[in-house]
Design a protein that fits this description.
Layout: E1 12-16, E2 40-43, E3 46-52, E4 58-60, H1 62-67, H2 69-77, E5 81-84, H3 86-103, H4 113-120
Length: about 130
Amino acid sequence: MPNDPLADPDTHFVSSNPDAGPVTRFSVPNSPGGSVYIGAERDPANPKVVVFHAERIVAIPGDEFRRFAREYGRAIRDGGLVVHKREAWEAQSRQEQEQKQSQRPPERKPETHATHAATHAPERKQES
């Protein structure tokens, strides 16, 4: 069994289908608010409401998928989970990484005394 679940050729890539209802992520222990869902979560303001992220593709490692094959297989057959190709998940991951990088503040270069004085000195007017 590979150490990296994404290196496992049996990894499945799925997203939720809001029309079919939430699908529990069986390998994740329940949170204090209840079940952990694939591509969905409970609204913190109203825990009775489930918010779906149908566009979010989730990787389920092969060993997890085999362990819960009956449950995940039923969810796929019943339309609760939509199967995607690895390439779609990889594209989503690249896009998320690019968004994270674009949201980072620019790196600040350490200031020397000379650059600090030049950028923070009070403006002086020259008389002619």
